[in-house]
Amino acid sequence: MSLLSDLVNLNLSDYTEKIIAEYIWIGGSGMDIRSKARTLSGPVSDPAKLPKWNYDGSSTGQAPGEDSEVILYPQAIFRDPFRRGNNILVICDAYTPAGEPIPTNKRCAAAKIFSHPDVVAEIPWYGLEQEYTLLQKDVKWPLGWPLGGYPGPQGPYYCGVGVDKAFGRDIVDAHYKACLYAGINISGINGEVMPGQWEFQVGPSVGISSGDELWAARYILERITEVAGVVLSFDPKPIQGDWNGAGAHTNYSTKSMRNEGGYEIIKKAIKKLGLRHKEHIAAYGEGNERRLTGRHETADINTFKWGVANRGASIRVGRDTEKEGKGYFEDRRPASNMDPYVVTSMIAETTILWKP
């Protein structure tokens, strides 16, 4: 008699050319990830060759019941670390039957910005630092924390090692390897300042692919925590009090910034970002006011400032960038629940296209 795990791990390629494609999209809240699977006749590597599909938008808060059909357009393909073989994960965005992007489809507008000739010429690179918190399933309290109580104060947990400092490393390492298997450009992981909080980094990635890769990485993390019986939170301030919040620091550079004399281009870009501070804050995630307080390595939400090696600034420039006169900068304002399509395209639009 086969065990359930034996059947889950069947290698289909030994028996059929057919593959399973898991179509993934963003639901009505802007943060809930949805997916469903379909069978295809054989391996596919080009999203343009995948069929469009539909789903019931009235069940995801994206369409009324009397006109509920929403169409999925495949946009990016990754290897499936759960089914493995030739099976794939497919990042999609959502449209009405008439071909109009639905309101929660932020990828479409981002793709238009990234396809602008001036943006294409600058080859924008992004490195996204995704912080998140692991919670105990039934009590929604951070992993490793005593029920109804608190651990020792912050200090030993950041990049910490040991059973009393690092909680959930098996999940984190499984996610790291699964992302590498999938073909996501994940560049590292680390334990964060608050116990039960972790971070992974995606990039450097160019343009729209940074958003596709981060959403795929989020999906994989959701699936792994599902298996582990742990709740995944992207709340920017999951625990009130003297505990760090969770952000999605966004590292950014253009071709001009990476070339000789790039530091002057960086300073001009930062000035532009300062002029549009309110617009960026409004688009950088829900609940960010609970995180951007001027404490716990943040700048106050109503204040824009930048500095070299300053983790209390809105924008941080690294020492190496200052020394070499070229490089990149880090926007520290985005919350952990930000939409990477919105944040990455808005930074490009403000720094490349916007004329003050």
UniProtKB/TrEMBL annotation:
Gene3D superfamilies: Glutamine synthetase, N-terminal domain, Glutamine synthetase/guanido kinase, catalytic domain. One of its GO terms (cellular component) is cytoplasm. GO terms for molecular function: ATP binding; glutamine synthetase activity. It is an enzyme of class 6 (ligase). GO terms for biological process: glutamine biosynthetic process. Residues 19-99 form the GS beta-grasp domain. It catalyses: L-glutamate + NH4(+) + ATP = L-glutamine + ADP + phosphate + H(+). The keyword Translocase does not apply. Residues 106-356 form the GS catalytic domain. Keywords: ATP-binding, Cytoplasm, Ligase, Nucleotide-binding. Its EC number is 6.3.1.2. InterPro entries: Gln_synt_N, Gln_synt_N_sf, Gln_synth/guanido_kin_cat_dom, Gln_synth_cat_dom, Gln_synth_gly_rich_site, Gln_synth_N_conserv_site, Glutamine_Synthetase. SMART domains: Gln-synt_C (SM01230). It is found in: Cytoplasm. Belongs to the glutamine synthetase family. Homooctamer. This is Glutamine synthetase. It comes from Salix dunnii.
